[in-house]
Write a structure and sequence with these properties.
The protein has 554 residues and is an alpha+beta fold. It is built from 13 helices and 24 strands.
């Protein structure tokens, strides 16, 4: 009996050890195309790969897929909708189908939204597309793409940026994540907002604003005085803690750095924020919470803006279905956390988490302040009391968006650098694989003190292309001498100001599909991504509904 007990214990211990070893053991994965990222571009890339008969694995740092499209940016920046084709168009068609079902309208009647269900900026019944949507609807559509196409998605997998990329003879052989998992592929796609795989593969990139002289541009670099969106101070507002006394120090968020002349370059970034989903339906709102590190003095500058007479606070509570909003930055002092993101692109994961948390605290504090502080005009506070975070969105994250709006991080310096001149129609680009049309849009980059001694924002630009422009294949390809089996559809090869137009979610999906189509051809032709047969690539994209020119080229 004693020997039996000892044997049972030994067998149990062995079994437990084997089970734990299997649980903790790193795995090796293999597919034709390895896609790093959980963004809209990542999922669309995977769909295109699988539909083309190849295997794909999505290695996603994010637990929730879809990037900004499913994290609050539901009031889509479309530009000219006619140039949004292929799988990007299919996404917005599925949004339309969702809201065409009466069961989708939980918190209001469909007839209450827009102008009674006819063609509105959101709903296009003629083309069966819808451009405005709730965050969870977008996420469900992306999850539907994954399920339908049986795509393998590994979540919470973070690239080992130090030693995780193995290259041989100019090609990525494998990537490894911090969990120890290894992913082997023939072609790799970096579909992150940050460009971490691209950087770890030693591909050239740029962070910040180039000088206008670099690419013969007009709207790059420092842009003091060019305030195209009214996100500037229209009044002479004192920047000091005690008005008129520089010795008292600057108010929160104002820099004392000297800026260069207009058009000079720097390493600074346009501001980030969270695109918030709010509700004014009493049964479906959570009152704005007081953040962990709340300091009312951080918003003293906003008080001075209110005191100067500004009342545009609610102008970017853009209405989406079911009495919710996509709330974005608006005016001289708002949700953009100006100057707080400069080190984000190159930062460690730990530092990035700190930056993201800092943005969350700033923005939550801003909402709490506007709803509760007696210095805020009573009419603003009263209206804010009618709003809160949408209770049925981001339910596992305190109703707060999953993804910080990383408007710009690294930008590849690839085979072709798309510039302002291309976007403004002054050139003809080679080998187009998609089109853009949105305003060349940069949010403010810094908040400074002018030579006259007043506070002012700098960096706001909004220049409209004359017509939709073509985006070349070379803007998603690294230089051939740097890597021959990587494609980069999000941190694409553009100048800062051209990226202001390219950086829209529909375009990311367009370029994601183009990257995947290029990857499939590279595999079939056993060649580098740079050397694929462009005519075949073009024809493949056109067959799948891509729009490559205004004249409807077939």
């Amino acid at each position: 009996m004693k020997n039996s007990i000892i044997l049972f214990i030994a067998l149990f211990a062995t079994a437990h050890f084997v089970a734990c070893s299997k649980t903790n053991k790193a795995n090796n994965y293999k597919a034709d195309v390895i896609i790093y990222g959980g963004t809209s571009a990542a999922i669309i890339s995977a769909v295109e790969v699988v539909k083309s008969g190849k295997t794909a694995i999505v290695v996603s740092p994010d637990k929730h897929i879809g990037g900004l499209s499913s994290s609050g940016l539901g009031f889509t920046d479309t530009g000219n909708k006619e140039v949004i084709g292929g799988l990007s168009h299919e996404f917005y068609r599925r949004v339309y189908l969702h809201y065409n079902d009466s069961t989708a309208w939980k918190w209001q009647e469909k007839s209450e939204y827009g102008n009674k269900g006819q063609n509105t900026p959101a709903m296009d019944s003629e083309n069966k597309t819808m451009w405005i949507f709730e965050p969870h609807v977008a996420e469900n559509i992306f999850e539907g793409f994954v399920k339908e196409n049986k795509i393998t998605v590994l979540r919470d997998e973070w690239l080992n940026r130090e030693t995780g990329v193995v290259k041989k003879n100019g090609k990525i052989v494998s990537i490894k994540t911090l969990s120890g998992n290894t992913f082997v592929g023939k072609i790799f796609i970096d579909a992150t907002y940050e460009g971490d795989l691209m950087a770890a593969a030693n591909v050239s990139y740029h962070v910040g604003r180039e000088a206008n002289s670099v690419y013969n541009e007009t709207w790059n670099g420092v842009q003091i005085g060019n305030n195209h969106h009214s996100h500037h101070f229209k009044w002479d507002i004192d920047p000091y803690k005690i008005s008129g006394k520089p010795e008292s120090g600057l108010l929160f968020g104002i820099s004392n750095n000297k800026i260069g002349a207009n058009g000079t370059g720097d390493n600074k970034l346009q501001a980030y924020c969270f695109r918030m989903c709010m509700s004014n339906k009493p049964e479906n709102l959570t009152p704005f919470p007081k953040p962990e590190k709340y300091d009312a003095t951080n918003y003293e500058l906003l008080v001075r803006v209110f005191d100067a007479g500004w009342r545009g606070w609610f102008n970017k509570f853009d209405i989406i279905p079911n009495r919710k909003t996509d709330t974005n930055n608006n005016g001289p002092f708002s949700t953009d956390y100006i100057g707080a993101n400069y080190d984000y692109p190159e930062a460690t994961y730990e530092r990035r988490r700190e930056i993201i948390k800092d943005h969350e605290n700033y923005q939550k504090g801003l909402l709490y302040f506007a709803a509760n502080d007696p210095k805020v005009p009573i009419e603003i506070r009263t209206e804010m009391k009618n709003w809160g975070l949408a209770k049925d969105e981001f339910v596992d994250n305190g109703n707060w968006p999953y993804q910080l709006y990383v408007r710009e991080a690294r930008r590849m310096i690839g085979e072709y650098v798309l510039t302002e001149n291309d976007a403004m129609g002054k050139t003809t680009v080679p080998k187009p694989v998609g089109m853009g049309s949105y305003t060349l849009d940069s949010h403010n980059v810094q908040r400074i003190v002018t030579s006259e001694g007043f506070v002012q924002n700098e960096g706001d630009v909004g220049v409209h292309p004359h017509e939709p422009y073509q985006i070349p294949y070379g803007s998603i390809c690294p230089k051939k001498e740097e890597c021959t089996n990587l494609l980069v559809p999000v941190c694409a090869s553009t100048s800062h100001i051209a990226y202001g137009s390219v950086r829209m979610e529909p375009v990311f999906m367009i370029l994601g599909q183009a990257a995947a189509a290029g990857a499939v051809l590279a595999i079939d032709q056993q060649t580098s991504v740079q050397d694929v047969d462009y005519n075949l690539l073009k024809n493949n994209l056109l067959k799948k509904g891509a729009v490559l020119s205004l004249n409807g080229e077939k």
